[in-house]
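In response to reviewer comment 3 from the previous cycle, which asked for concrete evidence that the modeling workflow produces usable outputs, we include below a single protein chain processed end to end. The sequence was submitted unchanged, and the resulting structure tokens are shown without manual editing.
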Amino acid sequence: MARRLKDVGYEVSALYDLSEAITDSLAGELGSVACRSLPEVTRRSDVIFTVVTDDAAMRGIFSGSDQSLLSDAEGKIFVNFATVTPAVHLEVESVANRAGARTLEACMASSITQAREGTLYLMIGGDEAVFDSVKPILEKLSASLRYIGATGQAAKVKALVNMVMNINTAGLAEGLALGDALGLDLTMLREVFSQTGANSQVLKTDGEDMQNRDHACFFSAAHAAKDSGIALELAREAGVVAPLAEGAKAQYDLMVSAGLGELDKSGVAELTFKSRRPAKMSV
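The workflow returned the following structure tokens.
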């Protein structure tokens, strides 16, 4: 996203990552300041984009302490791209407002390639006036920009997107594994899937990778497990039974426990193909 914004004429004033090497390299490329603290990021910026791993990380960067992003944050706008629970987005909005700052949730239903090309699918939650103020920036990052509603609403939609995607991924892995065990040609099988009711976006993005065991990470199994958990918690709160989501989460949890959590979610095929699952499930 930083490279894309630089390409379209925005000043990327500050960068921060837990890896100083990544920060330094990208800052040198984009002519930005490589920050060593969160308050420095806020101090040097008007609009701050955040992408973190989970609820704990989100709470950490918005802790309200003098070492968080909310140090001297009055008048700043934070656009938070992480997939976290709706409740945490609401918490962050509240603490940011007390600091005189504003927040948006910008939930991404896309990956690295789309971020670089400015073709993300973005679902936005938060105050609509704040959204309107940063809309020109977000339009440069997205091919589809959708305002969902108040804070927390976009996170709910994103949780459901990922829930269905993860179920589809686990189901595709089982279908291809059974086809392989039956001696079917998997290229042919994928073509048949694509022309019938078995077609899906996941088939397009993950089918060939499952067949070829190419699990370079765009969306990790660990993140799939985490996101499935968010959806299941929402289901429990709503009183909805979701056995398929539970089954998919169990598969991704198994990948994590087997040390495969950093593989792409397509790596769930390593659990389903009969010929691939040795005792220790190594790849």
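Residues 77 and 102 are 5 Å apart (CA to CA). We consider this sufficient to address the reviewer's concern, and the full set will be provided in the supplementary archive.
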